[in-house]
Amino acid sequence: MILDSFPREPEDRVRALREAIEHHNERYHAMDAPEIPDADYDALVIELRRLEAAHPEFADVNSPTRRVGTSPSTLFTPVHHVVAMMSLDNAFDDDEITAWSERLARSLNREGVGDLAFSVEPKVDGVAMSITYVDGVLTQAATRGDGVTGEDVTANVATIASVPKRLTTTDGDVPHILEVRGEVYLPLAAFAAMNTAQRKAKQKEFANPRNAAAGSLRQKDPAVTATRPLAFFAYQLGQLEGVAKNSGFNSRSHRAILDALSTVGLPVAQEITSALGIDAVIAQAHKLEELRATLDYDIDGVVMKLDDLDLRDQAGSTSRAPRWALARKLAPEERSTLLKEIEVSIGRTGRATPYAILDPVFVGGSTVEFATLHNEDQVAVKDVRPGDTVIVHKAGDVIPEIVGPVLSAGGKRPKVWKFPTKCPACKGVLVRLEDESDTYCVNLDCPAQRAQRLAHFASRSAMDIEGLGEKVVERLVDLGLITDVADLYGLEVGQLSGLEGMGEISANNLIAAIDQSRSQPLSRLLVGLGIRHLGPQGAKDVARAFASMNALRSASIEELSDVDGIGHVIAESVVRFMANPSNVAVLDRLDAYGVRPDIAQSGAQETGNGPLRGKTIVVTGTVPGFSRDEAQEAVERAGGKATGSVSAKTFCVVVGASPGASKITKAEALSIPMVDAGSFVSLLETGEIS
Length: 690
Hints:
By secondary structure, the protein is of the alpha+beta class. The protein has five domains: 2-66, Helix Hairpins; 90-329, 2-Layer Sandwich (D-amino Acid Aminotransferase, Chain A, domain 1); 334-439, CATH 2.40.50.140; 520-604, 5' to 3' exonuclease, C-terminal subdomain (DNA polymerase, domain 1), CATH 1.10.150; 607-686, BRCT domain (Rossmann fold), CATH 3.40.50.10190. Helices cover 34% and strands 19% of the residues. The strands form five sheets. Strands 12, 13, 14, 15, 16, 17 and 18 form a seven-stranded antiparallel beta sheet that branches. The radius of gyration is 29 Å and the shape is globular.
């Protein structure tokens, strides 16, 4: 989409692309305020390179395709890089990696690179940094700038805990001058905590960890930087002088150099691996891409480097990038697209949720057409409007989210969107509760709520009635065949077989699925009923404690509050639900239809006798290979108890991608061990923290 706005004539298009890239370089490198996602920027550069190759008559030595970064700002003292800080050429698929390896072989006068060793490294999405030590003492830190001249940010970098102020060695063997190159970044848990604080203060959230890191690093007052939990990874050497003969820094192997950096106290990413030949490099790159969601830092690619430093010298460099290294860009997690409309959906509880209708855009591995906007306040804070070009963020299985609008200086914007006052489904009044950010349709007869409640009851996480999707539910509601969940169990094949798209076989299958759901465990029925504040884990806790619906229906607030994991708010909500006359009628009819789940009907609610027996586990964030429900079920199959809140009884917290900041903070306060998502399977198998 971003290329559609550029002229079609090649000469005009080249000129416009160069101007746009220069502008976005300035916004990204000098101002730490990019207007477009990296993937959109990459699209501009790729298009410009294509045109320059097709039209050599438009060649220009000052083209941004031949330069690194942008000129340093005047905010900081300039620093000259003795060894230039270059950029990297990019590849976007395996074929381009193979083509690069063939070019590399030619530059080395070899038939191939099958016998050569490479380093495969995460491309951390942070701020490139040069840090110089003189006789082991941190002396200077500088940004990349234009590759030749950067900015002096020594005082700010000195506040980063993972950057040693003095290098450590066992024998005192430290080079006289050691310049290390690396990336300053913001860990994802820290980024989430910062944005949580911003939301509580009703301040604008940081767009992404990279921007937050850059803005934190380039503060004039180092005391501000010191409040931001930045971190650093080293990945390369720059200037090197006065090295002892037997020092690890004299090695001609990149892997050995990284080991030497680690030995003197400089942090190196643990995910770096070695590979022999380009096929193994590609395989390792794919493995690292699979780990992306488990890392506590953002990566936007995988870097592959020739290990032999002598061969690197032979391969040489272009004006902006070494020939011996390549960055394989990963599927973008942010893209820009048109926000066509903002509409409001009504959930089963009556909550009115605004969502964006988008021009379809491929991001985070799938095509996105809709994105949640959460509530009225979030629309206002993000200041997005129908007709805006917006940045959409999606990482793996995470729900797509709009980061904010793409704003251009002086551009006229569409009018501000206002939250509706009437329900789009029933035209009833929408009410925003006092001291809450959510808005509700309070009409209990609202057809949207009715259909949503029924669809939720039949969903996979509740009664799991196969074939009873939202469209079928809406049809049954429209025809007056069902008004509440108990009506499902009175349906007959003859009522269904004549419906549009449903023959006799489909009708029989659906009736059979409804019949089978009678034996679902009590916890699933409780989830299906949609009791406010009672989530899947709370439903399991309640089901274990009371064993049957009849026992639960007569339980008091005090008895429910005594259940581990159930507080007063949940207990009060359950009792209120059970006492509501409309709900009593539905529960009585469910019982009459034979829906009487109890613990004896299913072993699914009993914790097993596996390695985690007696241990309480909290899973926060996305764990690769598991949905949220699957992760909790895996803990229970291993004998453990999966809960959503951290307490002194918690054995450990499994931390996946985009974890809950409050859970991390509480675990740290209580000294509860935290396990990375990559060790989750081992925890399930052994019951021990690796």
